[in-house]
Design goal:
heterodimer, A: 468 residues, Rossmann fold, 33% helix, elongated, B: mainly alpha, binds adenosine-5'-triphosphate, binds magnesium ion
């Protein structure tokens, strides 16, 4: 039997949550959220009808409740009948350190457990135990005794400890714990890591972690899929381009890379337009502030239904783990999606996880996705995109400017496609009111990829070579 | 000095010797001999016992309220009120017995060991106050 951690996504990371009747360590540096984790665990339990007990050894109950985010405080007030506490923090100055002896603690906790029929316990801040126990062996024994006594009453416990130099304070807490969770705050983002679970699997690595007004959120670094994929052939929706690329299937990722001004978003608009017109839903996620343009373009193309959802997400400081879960939420019922301007995140630490997780999710769910990527150089570069998106893309189309006979033209080349028969030549296109218009192949130029072409028939070979 | 009603009390030899030393050491008290020293000591001790009894009685008086205060901080007002009401029901004049009964009630809420610590602490608070105050 599993007991919820109070955070749904963490339950999924931990194969259902904590083991029933287990003793679980949560550790982290100051302000990483240990107290709020414990409170959230207990409040959620109380909300599901359980009697719960919070034991604070360090801070006073008054301080803790005063600092609670308002939404969490409201939740606490709503379940106060089932929420019990023991405030050793405010008793220590009155009664002395004697109250931190493990048998005194154990008795006090078990009395409350029995009287109140408690099934979840949180013990916050074991540091004061050192006031009574001076060496590691004795602390370890004290914690072990406590864990055994709590287990014998059938309760599931979370206890917290400080992190010092990457380890829990005494380096002994882990040994007596059935599971270990570490909380991290880098100053920019919060992370949660499961280090151990006894008797079940878990998803390793650093997950996104967020403290909000109402509770805690975990954004696992991998996304779970309901796996309802059914493979069907699809059309991108730009005439001629479809024949040039060959087969595209539901769930495919199409990468469209090019410098500013090549009309990437217009490709995106066309990609979702037909789908929406045919009654299915599609999502356009833009990291640029250009939704009005997109909307106008859709209207110009005759698509005014509510099936196309447009969202602008401000890349700012947004954590990528949170972002991908937010996209997942919004993409729940869509069959097609555009991710516009993913390049803004390419320098982020969690970027590779983000790309990998997001696109395995869309693939598993059968959501065909067009990803646009802005390359900074306007002319003459061999850069396609970063290796992470390139690796997940099933199809890669590069857009570029080329000077041909004294005129700057927009050109595209298909660098990768699933079909062995895809077009390998360079193709001129134009941007019009009704979208992207494919003009035709440029037959006799070489050097277009560098932006200064010369006539040559051998370009096909070059492109192939370039891609390899 | 002596009186026909006076009774004899025995003390061991080393204690008797120690009394002699103390008389020499503290002439400012004006003890004229071992008998006067012993009479003075007994008077002081009886006073002390009496004072302790008053303080214990006073501790008994404040105990329900102080327990309520402590429990209210420690585990919230609901339990505190309940324990207070139960303690108010105790009818016991002997301070030792009274404290034992308080501990008996407290242990339902906080376990026997902590109950003992709390009761002891409340009595100690009174005794300390007595030493510094009065
Ligand atoms: N409403 C809120 N929204 C977002 N973050 C909040 C909110 N309220 C508090 N926080 C953050 O929660 C953190 C404090 O959480 P908590 O008290 O659980 O940490 P802790 O690990 O127990 O700290 P300590 O080591 O001091 O005991 C702080 O970093 C604070 O910025
Ligand atoms: Mg804390």
């Amino acid at each position: 039997m599993k007991v919820s951690t109070g955070i749904r996504n963490l339950d999924r990371v931990m194969d259902g949550g904590f083991v029933e009747r287990s003793f679980n360590l949560v550790y982290g540096g100051g302000g990483t959220g240990k107290t709020l984790f414990t409170m959230n665990f207990l409040i959620s339990g109380a909300e599901s009808g359980k009697n719960v007990l919070y034991v604070t050894l360090e801070e006073t109950w008054e301080d803790i409740t005063r600092k609670l985010p308002p939404g969490i405080k409201e939740r606490l007030n709503a379940v106060s009948k089932r929420f019990h506490y023991l405030d050793f923090g405010s008793m220590r100055p009155v009664l002395g350190r004697e109250i931190l002896k493990s048998d005194v603690l154990q008795e006090a906790i078990s009395s409350s457990v029995v009287v109140n029929n408690v099934s979840l316990v949180g013990i916050d801040g074991i540091a004061p135990l050192t006031l009574y126990y001076d060496d590691d062996r004795r602390i370890r024994n004290a914690i072990f005794d406590l864990s055994q006594s709590l287990k014998s009453y059938g309760v599931t416990t979370v206890f917290t400890s400080e992190e010092i130099e990457g380890r829990s304070r005494y380096g002994v807490e882990e040994f007596v714990s059935d599971s270990v969770i570490r909380l991290i705050y880098t100053g920019r983002s919060r992370r949660l890591q499961v280090l151990k679970t006894r008797g079940s699997g878990f998803i390793g690595g650093l997950h996104g972690f967020e403290i909000t007004n109402d509770g805690l959120q975990v954004y696992p670094r991998v996304m779970f899929s309901e796996g309802k994929r059914e493979i069907r052939a699809e059309a991108i929706g730009i005439s001629k381009l479809d024949t040039m690329i060959g087969e595209v299937y539901s769930g495919d990722v199409i990468l469209l890379a090019g410098p500013p001004g090549t009309g990437k978003y217009l490709f995106g608009v066309q990609f979702i337009k037909n789908v929406c017109s045919s009654g299915k839903r599609a999502l356009f996620v833009s990291f640029e502030d250009n939704l009005p343009n997109i909307k106008r373009r859709l209207m110009e193309m005759g698509e005014a239904s509510k099936n196309c959802k447009l969202v602008h997400l401000d890349p700012g400081d947004m954590d990528l783990y949170k972002l991908m879960w937010e996209i997942r939420d919004r993409a729940r019922d869509v069959s097609r999606m555009v991710i516009h301007g993913i390049n803004v995140f390419s320098e982020r630490e969690e970027y590779s996880d983000f790309v990998h997780s997001l696109f395995s999710y869309t693939r598993n769910e059968g959501i065909s996705t067009l990803v646009t990527y802005t390359i900074p150089n306007i002319i003459g570069t061999n850069v396609i995109a970063d290796k992470h998106v390139v690796n997940v893309a099933n199809h890669i189309v590069k857009l570029l400017f080329a000077e041909i006979n004294g005129e700057l033209k927009r050109v595209l080349v298909i660098l990768k496609a699933q079909s062995p028969n895809h077009e390998r030549g360079l193709v001129e296109y134009r941007l019009g009111k009704r979208g992207v218009i494919i003009v035709g192949k440029i037959e006799e130029m070489e050097g277009i990829m560098s932006g200064t072409p010369t006539k040559q028939m051998e370009i096909q070979k070059r492109v192939q070579k370039f891609f390899k | 000095m002596g009186n026909s009603e006076d009774k004899m009390v025995r003390v061991p030899k080393d204690m008797y010797d120690a009394i002699g030393e103390l008389i020499k050491k503290y002439p400012q008290y004006g003890w004229k001999g071992p008998s006067e020293f012993v009479r003075d000591a007994i008077r002081r001790y009886v006073e002390e016992l009496h004072r302790r009894e008053i303080l214990l009685k006073r501790a008994m008086k404040v105990m329900p309220g102080r327990v309520r205060e402590i429990l209210s901080k420690f585990m919230g007002p609901a339990e505190a009120e309940e324990a207070y009401a139960r303690i108010m029901e105790i009818h016991e004049d002997d301070p030792e017995e009274y404290v034992a009964k308080v501990v008996e009630i407290l242990k339902d809420y906080v376990g026997e060991k902590l109950a003992d610590i709390i009761a002891r602490r409340i009595v100690e608070e009174r005794l300390n106050e007595g030493e510094h105050g009065d």
